[in-house]
Amino acid sequence: MKTISVTLAGAGAMLLFFGAQDVDLKPIAHAAVPTFDESVIVWTPEADQEIIDQYCVRCHSDRRLRGNLSLEGFNAAEPHLQGDVAEKIVLKLRAGMMPPPGVSRPAGDSLQALASSLEERLDEEAERNPNPGGRTFQRLNQSEYARSVRDLLGLEIDPSGFLPLDTKSANFDNIADAQMISATLLDSYLNAAATIARLAVGDPEAAPSSSTYTNPGYASQWERVDGAPYGTRGGISVVHNFVSDGQYEFRLAFEHTTTGGYFGGVTRGEQIEVSIDGKRVQLLEMDRWMSVADPNGVNMRTEPVFVRAGPHRVTAAFLKQTEGPVQDVLSPHDWSLSDRQIGVSGYGITSLAHLKDLVVAGPTSATGVSETPSRKRIFTCRPTKLEEAADCAAEIIEALAPRAFRRALTDDDRSALLGFYALGEEEGGFEVGVRTAIEAMLASPDFVFRMEEAPS
Asked: pTM of the entire structure?
């Protein structure tokens, strides 16, 4: 105990003595760590190749093939010839992953110098011969197809009515490797080409057909929809392309309750208006007692209406009877038909009629084709004599086809399209010939696919 006490006392005295002195404490000087300055190092391709052959090829050889990589044929003087391999080398060297731990390495900063010189040669080659890469082809998705048709023919279409849904990759629908080609898709492109060409040029001998536009059950029927005349509520408003002048019929289908009755039948005095380009053509009184058991079901139709060819806005909408908030016992369903039983009694809540489908049917008697925006864009010339027809068709093809194919026409392109024109002209005259040539353009791989050539 005495020894320990004496020792502690001596240590305390020393601390007091030195603590009272002005001691200049300085940090211990360490040797400076050398840094690598890439700007002052000159590294030759021969030196690069020597390091690769000595320290890399022994593992990355044709025989051992570590990491599924062989560097036996790699030329450090021209790394751009194997650009993907050179990028892998640089990446591993910058990360300090190669050579792996426990394996001999060159002295100093040789590995970093190797990475820098490879990067420099790759960058120099990229500046001399820029190559952003490319893709051989990519088909148009629905949105691109619709825009291409609009830009070419001035015709607005709904691509979902012609083409199946686009496949997606990472939620993108314009990724080339996800856009598979199938027989169904090819048939869709061919059918779309025929229909769109017919709509663009028009068909004075069009047979009756029908197009159905559907209102989803969650769509609001309380307020005016876009495109509908003011003073209306709900309904459907669409732009429909009429293929020819003639008589058309508009058929309306309404939502019904779970028991089959007309939804919103408790509301009296409902009227629905059918208009074309904002002008009323029919006003129908709603039958609040109609049911799915009736011969016509919960449906109504207009008398035949004469409509000229081309795009027209067709609207079927209810006349609005009230304005402002509705004081109900229950909050009204502004956007949903989730409870269809409400439309039976209507107790405590205002239930309004809902338009489900709008069908445009016709023409029942086509009388010709009026001038339309598409026809104005297509027919840049009109032959007055039979011998002028071929030259006029060639002029039309020369104006449309380069925009359709997104490139200059070749002699083979012209010859093929004029051949299609001749087939159509022989069958139905000049306009049918032009329509057949346009159909061939829209069905061509040069329109459906975006072709890209590698830069020369």
From this structure: 0.71
